Amino acid sequence: MSDSRPIGIFDSGFGGLTAVKEVIHSLPDEQIIYFGDTARVPYGPKSRETIIRFSIENILFLLKYKVKLIIIACNTASSVALSIVEKNFKVPIVGVISPGVLEAVRVTVNKKIGVIGTRTTINSRAYEKMIKLTQPRTKVYSVECPLFVPLVEEGWLDNQTIRQIARFYLNPLKNKKIDTLVLGCTHYPLLKPVIKEILGPSVTLVDSAKQVAQQAKQILVNQNILSPKGKKSKNNIRFYVSDEPDNFAKLGKRFLGFELKNVRKVSNV
Q: Per the residue annotation, which of 27, 74, 140, 209 is the catalytic one?
């Protein structure tokens, strides 16, 4: 049995394209509907109630396209809204927290894990709680990085300004001798070169986008709802945004490596 319905993915902006990239790699035959809530980015500074409301609205938008599975490719929304939306929707919904935690716990040697994320993600302590639950003796050090998302959205990925800000955020973690760092926001993988430069080669960076794609694949296999073979994912992706489609397409091409055609703006999510 196969199921040609698409996978739905949403994020507050274009950072969730990290998940799209990994889904293309892990599930090359799947169609994808992506929604970037670019009019309301970033989610990090917003209240819990607002993030839950945005997440529900985004899910309802994706369900218009009869998606068979939804990936919340946003750490802030995953940390705040996942437990609520899971109970209120029948479609399988995957967040990025759990896959990232499992990978971090697997790779750490000295049991000192750093987590960077938006203010809301860090304040939720979602990563810390789950790491402690999985591996109680692990020490977890968390740092808010509120400037990373807007800088990534502006395409500031490699200059002295981003390096200076990154050093300010990351030096306390370096001083704690962490050997593993969870990139607790789907925008942050675009800053991997700068982060590696500051922390050095001894620190493993955990990008939860890879793990969430694997988890999604496992769900599709278990439920026997994989798409028929023989399709090319990049030709079967539809992109929707709530603002600035041209800017989204420009930045998205830089990251995905191919032209994002027909990025559509939707006025009412």
A: 74
Other CB atoms within 10 A of residue 210 CB: 19
As a whole number of angstroms, the distance between CA 5 and CA 177 comes to: 46
Which of the following is catalytic: 185, 198, 249, 269?
185
Is 70 exceeded by the pLDDT of residue 233?
no
d(CA 254, CA 236): 19
Task: Supply the angle between the helices 17-26 and 245-256 in degrees, to the nearest 10.
Answer: 50
E strands in 103-214: 112-117, 139-144, 180-184, 204-206
Instruction: Decide which of 28 and 229 is more confident.
Output: 28
> In this model, does residue 121 exceed pLDDT 70?
yes
CA-to-CA distance for 20 and 28, rounded, in angstroms? 11
C-alpha to C-alpha distance for 15 and 153, rounded to whole angstroms? 8
Contact 34, 239 (CB under 8 A): yes
Active site residue 145: no
Contacts of 183 (CB under 8 A, 6+ apart): 100, 116, 189, 192, 195, 205, 206, 207, 208
What the block records as the tokens of 95 is: 């967040």
74 is catalytic: yes
Model confidence pLDDT, tens digit, residues 75-120: 899 999 999 999 999 999 999 999 999 999 999 999 999 999 988 8
- pLDDT range class, residue 66, cuts 50, 70, 90: very high
Phi, psi of 108 (to 5 degrees): -65, 140
Domains of the chain: 7-95+210-265 (3.40.50.1860), 97-208 (3.40.50.1860)
Are residues 269 and 242 in contact, defined by beta-carbon separation less than 8 angstroms? yes
Q: Which two tokens stand for residue 62?
A: 């994706």
